Task: inverse folding
């Protein structure tokens, strides 16, 4: 087995050099310039866009600058875009360039779709490998990657690859048979499924440190407490280790599978905030028990703006990557968050915090979670992400649950129903243990009820193919 070819290694190193040494202002100007071109491409390519402009009494000539774009171009979503227009209307003549089609998870009850050309797939392979090199030094380590993402989610990479979907037995067999032949192994998947996989592997006495196992989580929001729990299971020191890691990514089928990703700097920033309220106040103005994920994103591929909706900000995404055969503009995914310039992050990390300044000169996106995750009683509010952060903070509780729960309003309190793992039996003692954990600093009283694996009605379809929600 050989490490990846020298030329590919050189290209990745050059790409990382550009990301580390280009000025943030230049990235910003490139993004805006490409954004205006993307509007023109969308109008030219897609009959759906031309119809949207017509319905809004818009002409392409009306969009002359960024202000016109932000005040005149309508906001799109799954309902008014993918559910309204046919495949041919969306892609126009580019439908003949489509090489790969993917469907979203259908988490909201509606499906969105992503379409890639052969050229985009080749470009995507370089992007994925560059990120993997940045994280795990794959150019100099023989690396085996196991993709445990749900069925249909393909990872384009030059690495030796196995794709098991959400079959933990298949992934464990590969970890035991093949992974020991490599310098390191990387698992990719939903954080709740990866938790199950690691717990099952512990029962089979797999030595994670010997395998030099690392993780990339996707598909769902990663509580910092869950990262800490997984790191403990993997015998990994998150705060001082620079050879292994657990990194979250965020992608959307219609926009790309790695729109956002963490680095050891952003992970360190998030973890430091948990212990340092002064640092938290410098970045986060919203009241929440859960800490947002801090993500890098590539402004020359995706332009992101914030839209204030009710009492929070939502992301609006515009695809400016010239390889895209469907350059979506001003698209709302329903994710709560805000965008920060690199210079803002840098300027707030002075003194004892300078070691947290990211080396990539990219803007930062703070992801708080999904819209619709808020629960309110008598004017007090709590978010589902807060519950997730608390549940994984106690290792005994974390090892007893699947990650699936519901949180419903019940009179003047909230009722939390928790799905237990197959080998765990419900008990009053467990309920009593969980109660103070989830009620700590909670503005609303939360009643706790645990359910055996086969008794939890919402859990009868638990297969890790769909996202886990608290609805």
Result:
């Amino acid at each position: 087995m050989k490490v990846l070819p020298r030329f590919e290694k050189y290209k990745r190193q050059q790409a990382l050099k550009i990301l580390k040494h280009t000025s943030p202002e230049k990235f910003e100007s490139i993004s805006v310039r490409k954004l205006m071109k993307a509007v023109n491409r969308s109008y030219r390519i897609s009959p759906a866009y031309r119809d949207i402009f017509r319905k809004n009494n818009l002409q392409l000539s009306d969009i002359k600058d960024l202000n016109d774009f932000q005040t005149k171009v309508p906001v799109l979503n799954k309902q008014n875009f993918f559910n309204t227009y046919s495949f041919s209307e969306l892609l126009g003549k580019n439908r003949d360039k489509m090489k790969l089609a993917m469907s979203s998870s259908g988490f909201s009850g509606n499906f969105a779709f992503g379409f890639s050309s052969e050229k985009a797939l080749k470009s995507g392979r370089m992007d994925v490998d560059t990120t993997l090199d940045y994280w795990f030094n794959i150019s100099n380590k023989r690396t085996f990657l196991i993709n445990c993402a749900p069925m249909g989610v393909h990872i384009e990479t030059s690495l030796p690859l196995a794709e098991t979907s959400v079959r933990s037995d298949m992934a464990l067999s590969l970890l035991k048979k093949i992974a020991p032949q490599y310098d390191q192994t990387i698992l990719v998947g939903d954080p709740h499924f990866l938790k199950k996989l690691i717990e099952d592997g512990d029962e089979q006495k797999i030595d994670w440190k010997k395998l030099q196992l690392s993780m990339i989580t996707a598909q769902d929001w990663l509580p910092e407490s869950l990262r800490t729990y997984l790191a403990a299971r993997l015998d990994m020191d998150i705060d001082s280790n620079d050879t292994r890691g657990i990194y979250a990514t965020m992608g959307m089928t219609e926009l790309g599978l790695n729109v956002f990703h963490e680095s050891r700097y952003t992970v360190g920033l998030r973890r430091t905030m948990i212990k340092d309220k002064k640092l938290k106040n410098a970045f986060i103005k919203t009241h929440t028990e859960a800490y947002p994920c801090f993500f890098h994103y590539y402004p020359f591929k995706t332009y992101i703006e914030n839209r204030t909706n009710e009492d929070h900000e939502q992301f609006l995404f515009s695809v400016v990557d010239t390889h895209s055969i469907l350059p979506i503009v001003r698209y709302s995914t329903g994710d709560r968050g805000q965008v920060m310039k690199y210079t803002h992050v840098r300027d707030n990390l002075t003194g004892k915090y300078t070691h947290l300044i990211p080396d990539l000169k990219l803007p930062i996106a703070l992801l708080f979670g999904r819209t619709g995750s808020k629960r309110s009683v008598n004017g007090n509010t709590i978010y589902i992400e807060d519950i997730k952060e608390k549940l994984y903070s106690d290792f005994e509780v974390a090892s007893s649950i699947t990650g699936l729960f519901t949180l419903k309003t019940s009179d003047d309190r909230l009722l939390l129903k928790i799905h237990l793992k197959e080998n765990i039996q419900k008990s009053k003692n467990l309920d009593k243990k969980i109660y103070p954990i989830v009620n700590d600093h909670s503005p609303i009283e939360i009643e706790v009820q645990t359910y055996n694996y086969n008794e939890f009605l919402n859990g009868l379809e638990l297969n890790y193919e769909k996202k886990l929600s608290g609805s």
Notes: The first helix runs from residue 6 to 21. The longest strand covers residues 331-340. The two ends are 47 Å apart (CA to CA).
